[in-house]
Amino acid sequence: MPRDQAGAPTGLVRAPTDQAHADGYDLRHHGDAEVRGDGDGLTDLAVNVRAGTPPAWLRRHIADSLSGLAAYPDGRAARAAVAARHGLPSARVLLTAGAAEAFVLLARALAVRAPVVVHPQFTEPEAALRDAGHEVRRVVLHSGDGFPLDPALVPEDADLVVVGNPTNPTSVLHPARAVERLARPGRVLVVDEAFMDAVPGERESLAGRTDIPGLVVLRSLTKTWGLAGLRIGYVLAAPETVRALERAQPLWAVSTPALAAAEACVAPAALAEAEHAAHTIAADRAHLLAGLAALSPRVRAATPAEGPFVLIEADDAAALRSRLRERGFAVRRGDTFPGLGPDWLRLAVRDRATTDRFLGALREAVENVSRAGSATGTG
């Protein structure tokens, strides 16, 4: 397997056929597993849902929709609202039960033969493709120079390419022009923009573009608005692609409360609130990165970071994660992401007070792990 200077796999890699695990990567592991069960009392830095959400006005709006639960869900108004938000006709929009459902629909509905997933990134796209019987190839980006997107790494015969922007877990925001270069006639280009509304100005977004052949943009409303338990997202694509996905989707897949949330979250006032939150996240992320820099070289943050999370590399990260848990903080292990390994952790961006508490705990944990390594001769 090709590897970069840091020892991480890079370039084109053919993924194994095992459906749950591949090359030791647990594709079904997600951040919520870090706080499930015995996570009471932990400060959650493992899940990328914005803290303090959903806001009170959104909770009230969702609650008001409950009086209509006797009727089957009618998604027309929400679909029209999402379309208007992106300047598109409704025929280019499909509402889904979160972005995860969209990945399943794409894997099952589209007649593709040579799918490629660009890693490191959210593992559900590859898992969904493999579950649908596809043989998946991976393009693994270089960790040594900040995981930049190199379109030349994607083989010309790929008829479906999946890339995240900004990418989970690396927090890299790829230039739109680089993502555009992945498009080809006869190829489906899936861009996962689940975290794009956490980027000020949503710069580098391709949502709303109709001039790029085969473009499919996925959006999630669960991260910024705290709706992971409600499941709501959407697909933006050519009408024929939307129709193909819709035929594969179960009837009434999106509930009435989720539809109400979708309509509310794309309203002008909500978009303004999301933009304000994006600027706050950017400032809070800069504060976190400054604190992490003070711990270099024992802790090394992947930069530039543009998402509501930061990827760090540290020696003996598994022990560090355990020490942090003892100190009340749950962080996301990175070794389940293809292209990463046991020395990586992902941290959600939180407010400055929480970050300062975390940095203190991280400093203590790093020193503890270093002393333990020195005592055993492994440090």
TrEMBL record:
Pfam family, one: Aminotran_1_2
Name this polypeptide is given: Aminotransferase
Family matches, as SUPFAM superfamilies: PLP-dependent transferases (SSF53383)
InterPro entries: Aminotransferase_I/II_large (IPR004839), NHTrfase_class1_PyrdxlP-BS (IPR004838), PyrdxlP-dep_Trfase (IPR015424), PyrdxlP-dep_Trfase_major (IPR015421), PyrdxlP-dep_Trfase_small (IPR015422)
PROSITE patterns attached to this UniProt entry: AA_TRANSFER_CLASS_1
NCBIfam families: PRK07908.1
Family: Belongs to the class-I pyridoxal-phosphate-dependent aminotransferase family.
Residue span(s) of domain Aminotransferase class I/classII large: 43-362
